[in-house]
User: Which sequence fits this backbone?
């Protein structure tokens, strides 16, 4: 009886195991293979060492920097929004969360093109500014535009985990804190913030990882002036046909992400074991 | 209406003598949630060092009253006074009042020590002073050595103690307790009742205690406030409340009681169940319809020929100390508690002494309670647990 149910339980995991092997483990092995071999298939470290040029380092550093900024901005915007949503009625929460994810229903390319239309020098925003007799602002092809694109695209991934933690927050704890002498600000810093830490960490992960590896946003909103790792990797596969170098970049990016996550997990100490 | 007049606390004696000063006062406080009246213009005076219990079924407004004193709820009308100063607009964190919550509401991210130290940390006291006072509190609630424990792994009783220590460390002038023992099992509840009472005596802090458990209320309090339908039904000492219930609701809610329709023929003379009885009550109009309360333990079982009333025994339950006997007298089921056994379906007589009869004015609760025809232990217990669960939404 017990044995049978155990076998069933194990069987329930098989689809996922098969999925993981086919679509996660196997591709990873391919990436490793290409990263550490040359065009003839011989082992080499040259792909990795060749990344140590200033031009590539600049790309890595810029990606890291943009992703970091986008994540921080997302967190600053998402935290109060998620808190506000969690304080509304259950029915309102459902609707508001749906509205948060609504932009994701549109295709990613269309969303990015829409931002181009908005931000261009002769775009919608500047046209409006001019009609109001105000100075037009140059926005497209700036780091601002690229980071804006990232924030816009990845904000829901910050709001949703934050909201899911906050909606489970026991309101009596907040009442108890004010009973014991906390003002509104202290309730936030001493109760809400520490108790939503796991949401903050998964939110950061879910925004930082896609931000650092994103491509296309920078090409369209940055006008090709701000190459990111994702764009560089794409070029190796699509234009340069240098699979080995592309794989090496992917490998380094992966290491970068793992290190970032490890640093964050260290800061989240005991109750943060959510990711990686 | 006229009946409501007598429910005002005017002239009602609190459990504590008048030498103690007023500490909390509610004047004509009313509150509605979504158009539903939860508190209907109540007046209440709490004195220093008093152990006051707000007692009533779920939805009677007792928790709301507590929340208004704590500052979590703002009354629609009326004033809240603290040491004779109006505090309607003082936020909860600025009031000299702390609360022990029903399900403890301990901070899950802090250990026992930090939970108790919480209020002191906000005051930015020195580490030594915090340590000293936390240890003092831990000693008081018998939790020495638990400093580093995770509060999520404590038993219900231990969590309760942490909650009490956390609320008392601030040395509040008034401690509010919202059904603090409801989640504990019976044995632990009894122990904690004694401990709480001792703590209250030792610290001299005013306790305002909310419960739906009448036994808890009677055994712990100096003053009991019985509430129903958003109104205060009676304020008095536990003995007053039990012996001199103000109306049918109080009589039914506190202990067991037979509540019979009657007429006051004259001073000291009441008629009910087709028989005239002598009693000790006076001051009613001639032939005024009244509710008559007779406690089950005050009814004597006698042979039929000696009985003032005669009835048929419909059920007998052994309760340890006594038998609980249900007797049908003219289609009204009486409950009688007797140490002598009688057999079901036996005809018995009952005898009632004049001091066993308590006469009450008719009220909105007349004819709602007091008959034991549908009585069953099981139902009573079921309704008890429901009450505990519902109470929170209030």
Assistant:
């Amino acid at each position: 009886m017990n044995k049978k149910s155990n076998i069933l339980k194990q069987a329930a995991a098989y689809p996922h195991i098969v999925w993981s092997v086919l679509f996660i483990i196997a591709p990873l092995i391919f990436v490793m293979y290409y990263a550490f071999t040359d065009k003839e298939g011989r082992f080499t470290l040259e792909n990795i060492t060749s990344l140590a040029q200033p031009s590539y380092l600049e790309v890595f550093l810029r990606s890291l920097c943009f992703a970091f900024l986008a994540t921080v901005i997302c967190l600053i915007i998402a935290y109060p929004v998620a808190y506000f949503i969690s304080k509304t009625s259950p029915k309102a929460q459902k609707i508001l969360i749906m509205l948060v994810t609504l932009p994701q229903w549109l295709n990613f390319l269309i969303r990015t093109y829409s931002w181009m239309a908005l931000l261009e020098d002769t775009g919608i925003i500047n046209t409006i500014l001019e009609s109001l007799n105000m100075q037009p602002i140059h926005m497209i092809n700036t780091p601002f535009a690229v980071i804006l694109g990232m924030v816009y695209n990845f904000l829901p991934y910050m709001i949703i985990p934050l909201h899911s933690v906050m909606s489970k927050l026991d309101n009596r704890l907040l009442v108890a804190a004010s009973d014991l002498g906390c003002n509104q600000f202290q309730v936030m810093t001493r109760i809400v913030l520490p108790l939503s830490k796991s949401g903050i960490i998964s939110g950061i992960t879910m925004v930082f990882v896609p931000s650092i590896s994103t491509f296309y946003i920078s090409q369209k909103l940055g006008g090709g002036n701000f190459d990111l790792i994702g764009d560089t990797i794409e070029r190796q596969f699509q234009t340069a046909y240098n699979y080995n170098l592309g794989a090496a970049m992917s490998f380094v990016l992966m290491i970068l992400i793992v290190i970032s996550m490890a640093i964050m997990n260290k800061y989240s100490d005991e109750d943060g074991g959510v990711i990686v | 209406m006229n009946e409501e007049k007598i429910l005002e606390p005017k002239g009602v004696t609190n459990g504590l003598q008048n030498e103690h000063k007023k500490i909390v006062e509610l004047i004509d406080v009313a509150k509605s949630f979504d158009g539903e009246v939860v508190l209907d213009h109540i007046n209440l005076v709490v004195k220093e060092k008093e152990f006051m219990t707000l007692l009533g079924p779920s939805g009677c407004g007792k928790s709301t009253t507590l929340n208004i004193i704590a500052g979590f709820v703002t009354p629609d009308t009326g004033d809240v006074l603290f040491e004779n100063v109006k505090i309607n607009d003082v936020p909860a964190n600025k009031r000299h009042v702390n609360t022990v919550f029903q399900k403890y509401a301990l901070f899950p991210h802090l250990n026992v020590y930090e939970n108790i130290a919480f209020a002191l940390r906000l005051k930015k006291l020195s580490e030594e002073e915090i340590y000293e006072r936390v240890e003092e509190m831990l000693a008081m609630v018998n939790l020495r050595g638990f400093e580093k424990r995770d509060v999520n792994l404590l038993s219900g009783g231990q969590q309760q103690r942490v909650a009490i220590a956390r609320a008392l460390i601030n040395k509040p002038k008034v401690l509010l307790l919202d059904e603090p023992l409801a989640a504990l099992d019976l044995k632990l509840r009894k122990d904690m009742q004694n401990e709480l009472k001792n703590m209250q005596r030792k610290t001299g802090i005013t306790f305002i205690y909310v419960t739906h458990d009448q036994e808890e209320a009677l055994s712990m309090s100096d003053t009991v406030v019985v509430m129903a339908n958003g109104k205060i039904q009676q304020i008095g000492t536990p003995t007053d409340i039990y012996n001199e219930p103000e109306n049918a609701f109080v009589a039914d809610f506190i202990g067991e009681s037979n509540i019979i329709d009657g007429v006051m023929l004259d001073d000291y003379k009441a008629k009910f169940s087709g028989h005239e009885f002598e009693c000790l009550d006076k001051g009613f109009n001639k032939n005024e319809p009244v509710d008559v309360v007779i406690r089950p333990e005050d009814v004597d079982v006698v042979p039929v020929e000696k009985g003032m009333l005669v009835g048929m025994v419909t059920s007998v339950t052994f309760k340890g100390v006594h038998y609980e006997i249900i007797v049908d007298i003219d289609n009204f089921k009486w409950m009688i508690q007797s140490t002598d056994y009688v057999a079901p379906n036996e005809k018995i007589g009952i005898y009632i002494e004049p001091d066993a009869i308590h006469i009450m004015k008719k009220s909105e609760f007349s004819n709602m309670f007091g008959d034991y025809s549908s009585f069953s232990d099981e139902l009573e217990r079921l309704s008890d647990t429901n009450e505990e669960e519902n109470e929170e939404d209030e």
In short: Chain B touches chain A through 21 residues (CB under 8 Å). Residues 186-203 of chain B form the longest helix (18 residues). Chain B is about 25% helix and 30% strand.
